[in-house]
Amino acid sequence: MSQSSDEALWRAVREEVMTYGVSRSTVTSVAKRAGLSRMTVYRRAGGMEQLVLDALAHELGSVGALVADELAESADPVGELAEGVAEVVGALVDSELLDALRRHDPELLLPYLVGHFGRGQVGLAAQLTRSIEQARARCAELGRPLRAQTASHEQARFLIVALQSFVMVVGDEPELTRELIEREVTHLVAGYLTSGAADD
């Protein structure tokens, strides 16, 4: 399938789940929304649940681009990185697909909380690992080295595990605005990355 067909498919999955939930959605109706044949969609994913999981992985991958990855000349690499992570969290909190799953089919989100990392989480962790490594290198150049006891890829996974449960349940807390969420996540991430730096 072409990139434009993929985008049409993910959009159709999101609209279908928002309207009916996963249990009442069908591959046939998704294919019709996307302007694709039913067999094409079946070959792409095999069934409705896999379509939803693939669409969710796509959504996680698309917001990963918000994580700062040009930190080589930054005057505040940790601050920029923390703000980027906060934007990712904010975007996921506002995700229409995630909101629909939280309301209609929360059981599909359980593997993200208690199972192994899915494809979308792995991609997000890789992007975050690269950004943490860049922040570490830039902080060392600035004479403000970050702690090195924990590897960058481990820190990336810890951050995702810590923040993803918040993303999964925050839709039920209307007083938590996106502005508030992003501000507090920025503080959390920056504090985590800089804690204990002087001890190294």
Provide structural commentary.
With 200 residues, this protein is mainly alpha-helical. Helix content is 70%, strand content 0%. It contains ten helices and no strands. α1 crosses α4. The longest helix has 23 residues. The mean pLDDT is 88.
CA-based shape: elongated
Our Rg estimate from Cα atoms comes to 19 Å
The biggest beta sheet reads: none
> Class by helix and strand content?
mainly alpha
Beta-strand content? under 5%
Arithmetic mean of pLDDT? 88
Write the element-wise H/E pattern from the N-terminal end onward: HHHHHHHHHH
Topology (elements, then pairings):
Elements lengths: L2 H18 L6 H8 L3 H8 L2 H16 L13 H17 L2 H9 L5 H5 L4 H23 L10 H18 L8 H17 L6
Summarize this structure as a short list of keywords or feature phrases.
200 residues; mainly alpha; 10 helices
In short:
The chain has helices spanning 3-20, 27-34, 38-45, 48-63, 77-93, 96-104, 110-114, 119-141, 152-169, 178-194. The chain has 200 residues and is mainly α.
